[in-house]
Amino acid sequence: MTPEQIAAHTGKLPRIVRAQLTRVSGKVRNGAFSPAPLPIEARAQRRRVYLAGPDVFRPDAVAHGRRLAALCAEAGFDGLYPLDNAAPGQLRGPDLAAWIYQANIGMIRSADIVMANVNDFRGPGEPDSGTAFEIGFAVALGKEIWCYTTDTGALADRVPATPSPDGPLCQQGFRVEDFGASKNLMIACSARIVAGGADACIAEMSRAYRSTPSSYRQDGGS
User: Fold this and answer.
1) Do 140 and 200 fall within a single domain?
2) Are residues 109 and 201 in the same domain?
3) At what angle do helices 61-74 and 198-209 cross, to 10 degrees?
4) CA atoms of 163 and 124, how far apart (whole Å)
5) Torsion over CA of 138, 130, 47 and 144, rounded to 10 degrees?
6) Which tens digit of pLDDT belongs to each residue from 27-57?
7) DSSP secondary structure, the chain, as one string
8) Cα 163 to the center of its chain, rounded Å
9) What CATH number is attached to the domain comprising 85?
10) Cα gap 100→88, rounded to integer Å
11) Which of 26, 91, 137, 166 has its CB surrounded by the most CB atoms within 10 Å?
């Protein structure tokens, strides 16, 4: 906008607007004033969070993903949900599975953080296997891992087991690990685990990063 247009919108005299613009320009040149970032710049500074978990199998999976993304946005993050990707309609079976795999891998690569739902899934004591894979892949890429679970107590206390001379054995006859953690040690030792739901995890993440400014991202992530 020209000084005259700004003056017309603000009710100020054009000469006053020109004088103020000159002062601001001088401060910017001297490094004494930093204008607010453009929306695209502000968006680029937000940490991107890949939302891993078996939530994609929920009957309301798409709506749930929107809720998770909204919680992320309120806390200053960009939520990346696997179902944000729309697969080509003609794909079926193994071809569709391969497309989903590559799309999710790409999302994880572009993310700064993986936030995973590691609640027990289809059996006591174990999270979704696809989620466990995504956590491991993200760890290998050097991503930050946050997990959340409403499961309470140590893994050894939750898995049905029978005593044996070799220690407690699960129903399949395998020993149940007992390190005092709520999840398998490979997850417990690689992630910050929050007791509660996604909202509790996002709140903890927000507190952790509030005093740590984000740097501008480069295209493609790590």
Assistant:
1) yes
2) yes
3) 30
4) 17
5) -40
6) 767 766 555 554 544 555 689 999 999 999 9
7) --HHHHHHHHT--HHHHHHHHHHHHHHHHTTS--PPPPHHHHHHHSPEEEEESGGGGSTTHHHHHHHHHHHHHHTT-EEE-GGGS---TT--HHHHHHHHHHHHHHHHHH-SEEEEE----SSTT---HHHHHHHHHHHHTT-EEEEEE---S-HHHHS-EE--TTS-EETTSPBPP-SS-SS-HHHHTTSEEEES-HHHHHHHHHHHHTTSPPPPPPTT--
8) 40
9) 3.40.50.450
10) 10
11) 137
Predicted structure pTM score: 0.75
| Cβ atoms of residues 147 and 115 within 8 Å | yes
Which portions of the chain are predicted below pLDDT 70?
1, 9-11, 28, 31-45, 211-222
Mark whether 15 and 113 lie in a shared domain.
no
What's the domain count of the chain?
2
Tokens of residue 27, six digits: 């401060």
Range of the domain at 23: 1-35
Q: Are residues 21 and 74 in the same domain?
A: no
Write the pLDDT tens digit of every residue in 59-79: 999 999 999 999 999 999 999
Same domain membership, residue 139 and residue 89: yes
Average pLDDT taken over every residue of the chain:
86
Nearest to residue 160, comparing CAs of 147, 148, 173? 173
Identify whether residues 110 and 76 lie together within a single domain: yes
